[in-house]
Amino acid sequence: MEKNPITTEEMRILELNAQYLGVTHSMLMQNAGREVARVVESTSKVEGKHIVIVCGLGGNGGDGIVAARYLDEAGANIDVHLLGDAKTITNRDTLHNWDILNNLHDILSSELLTESAVKSCKSIKEADILIDGIMGFGLRTKLREPLFSAVKVINQSPAIKYSIDVPSGIDSETGVVHGVAVKADHTIALHASKVGMSHAKDYIGKLHVVSIGIPKEAKYTCGPGDLIPFKQLRTAHSKKGDFGRILVVGGSDVYSGAPALAGMAALRTGADLVSVLAPDPVVSAIRSYSPNLMVRSMGTQLLLPETVTNVVELANQAHVVALGPGLGLEQQTKVAVTSIVEQLVKSKKPLVLDADGLKALASSELKLNPEISVLTPHWGELSILMDENLGDATLLPNRVDQAAACAKKYNSVILLKGPIDVIADPDGQIKLNRTGVPAMTVGGTGDVLTGIVAGLLAGNSSAFRAAAAAAFISGVAGELAFNERGDHIVATDCIENIHCVFDR
Length: 504
What we know:
single chain, 504 residues, alpha/beta, Rossmann fold, UDP-N-acetylmuramoyl-L-alanine:D-glutamate ligase, nine-stranded mixed beta sheet, seven-stranded parallel beta sheet
């Protein structure tokens, strides 16, 4: 149970990640209904009272339907009115609980299909207690009929009024009232109050925050919920570049594969355009990997200080820069990387720094922007960044502590790669990712992760969310590749499974 208000998106992420951990939606609905009944029982006399529960067709209505059974058990006389045709219920758990009510003879259940049916419903007008289960969080537009009329009728009643999660009609994000909203005497917030409720205090009444069984691990474990901010539907008016222009700066006279893998991973993640800026000796090789990459030459054998101006100019045309894959460790390259990072920080350009780029950063005293920057070290690179012996790499608490310390030192999000990835930001926020397989120790998977982070960071989400989602996607893509090829996977197998993670 959260003490602080949360956003609609945060609640959706928590619910989905709880399900990923095995706490089903059905379990959450049963818990919510029981808690609603408990609050009603503890604040009003229910035995012998006429309690009317008005339900929508979604999960909020399902919570109210479950509450009906518990309140019936407590001795109340229960009527449940569904606003709409039960055949149109798309929430499987809501439908299941509605079917249960139809087996019970002591609870009156009926469908109110029209505005006139709502207005002529004597049951709502004569109730001692009314429970609003019409709409939960996530409302963005004016209530349609018969929901709109139901709210007006509820407000006209002298009954004690309870709203489940959010009074229906209130935008849970902004507190805006969409035409009309239930004026509740009590609001029973599920797991946490929603941020918009603080702007609609006249409608909330007394606030009760109840636990519905979301485990605390759902907050700090990466799961499919973390993909929610990145599942954007592309409209018919979308144009090239709307979903991200990525610049990958990498490669050396020795390494050509790393920047290509990062670039292809960014494309598979959903970026529209990926440019790779590489030293002259490997440009032809990178071009040969895929016609989907736009490859440019630095005009030098390595990344050198005289290349910095060109890099920064190209960075200004991109949404995100991924810097580091395969750059090498020449001293002049380190000087160039430091200068590039410094200028990108000044221009507030989103940045993913990996591999040899991290080693260059370690010798600087640069501070980044944690909203738009991600560093992706493994344990050895973290030791270089921190310039000290970090102790036992196998102890998860130590890994968490060291990642958090590094995040504060560089004022950046840290994605510490390992058997369990640790994502940390300077404010102390932590997430753990447990996806992936040992077969992903094969070379190139770190470059794939860099590309995924860059692709997600182009979606205007926070760096922390992009890093958490990227770690999950990379790990699951590796698991899917392993299911096909066992311990014989290569990095490109992971890339080819990225889209499958979004489709699950």
